[in-house]
Amino acid sequence: MSILDDLLILPPTMGTLGQYDDSLTSRLIRTSDTIELGGKKLFAPWMFCGTTRQQAGSHWLALCRFARAIGMVVECNIDQMEGLSEQSVPLRLERSRIDQALNPNVVKTADLLEITCQSARSGNWSWPPEAQSLHELNQWLSTLRRIARPSSAIGLGLPIGIDAESIVTACRTGIDFLTLHADAWVADELIVKSLCQIRSISSNESTNKPHIILRCHHHRAEHLLKWIALGASLVSIDGWMSELWTNQPKPEIKAFTIEPTPQHDSQPARIQQRFDLLQKRLNSVLDRRQTHALMTLQGSVRALSATAASLAQVPLLTN
Amino acid sequence: MSQSPSVAEQVIDASSISLDQLHDLLCKLENSMAVRLEYLPSCWSGVGAGLDRSIGLRINDDLGSYALMLSQNVKAEASKNVGNACGHSLHSGSILVRGSAQDFLGAHARGGFIAVLGRAGDFAGYGLDGADIVVRSQSGKAAGTRMRAGTLVLGNGTGEKLGHCIEGGEIFVRGAIGGLGEGAQLMRMTQTHSLRLGLLLARAGIKASIDDFQLIGAATG
Description:
heterodimer, A: alpha/beta, eight-stranded parallel beta barrel, 12 helices, 16% strand, B: alpha/beta, 2 helices, 11 strands, 24% strand, disordered N terminus
């Protein structure tokens, strides 16, 4: 049982009812508070973080086309776009870790550039050795911003459970987004605590309120919605969508060649259906709240238990 | 026989423009142009960063942090000192520093050549990944930490933890070594090493006897 099961998103007691059609596109675009990252407008609070071309297999092209069509961010490097037409390339988030040389092609082409404060070799989290102070971090990030495209968003990647001081430092660097990395084994309690901590710090920091990207591995749609209600701007849906490609047939291996799996006509439809299911859940919550504004979800969370109320810093639901 | 015309040096007065304007000006330069930067505020970080032009760049003032980070094909010459992480993630081209360099000189540099005729601070060549760095005078502690590839030449002694957690590449040191870092060891210098060292010293314009140098590399096994 997850702590999220003890948290509810409540409808408001009053408000005006709007009439909306059910088409996915209209729902996305009519969401009143689009997320602005750098020079990009995002119409849905979801993104792909870490699904590789290899994992998605024959779904990759359809996935990229779909993400492109609705303006969704896909975390991947430029090599994974090889062979895709320009019209199929989605908004890309590229990551560079602190012990890796920066790649000019990455810095100059990424739509979102994340400096993940983790060693690629040891997996340990820390600030870049060459930029330990806020002043040095500022210099480093402003230099990167100058090299990157003007419309690129620059962010930092930190682990779930990071201390408050580091979050304050990250907010003060003027980054556009802050990615919270939650490994599959991380307890939901820790994610809830981290999101609440950031929400609290961010509301006190008058200078900069970066968007929060939550990179998690959740499979349940209700949980994904609750992360948004708890303060995340973008949530990874790789876990939700992975059902499509975890059971796909392996390519047929012949004597010395591997036959590529053909692109099935049903793949784009299946991706759209799966995504639509998630978006409908979000829309039904928004409908119950009689709004299309994602921001209103924040502040609508109530807890069923004292523990959950304390952890998420939300009111306890009373009769 | 006609003599090829020398390229005229363009002067940019940085006192009357912003750092962003300077960056835009440098990005618009055509290949093979030569530029001299004047009155550069030393507090500016990232001067020349991300440039990808075959240009000559001469700077007569102190340079701030992250100068020429991620640059390619630029041939830069700084008459005075440079700040932290000069040449960070350098990909190609060359940087000649006539003064001294602060910490993290050439960190993660993947290609190109950096020569410092003065001193270098701590962590010179941190995570070096293929570039060549020569420091004529003394360098601080932990030079060559987490180095993966490339060559680091330290001309007048170095501090403690030299080559800490080194994975690859070569470090040549003349003078006293404050101590080797974890995973670093003294190695036998072969003719190939001597030849390489001689070429790098000559490129940096440093006269020194190759016999005075020791070679440090990653401990194997």
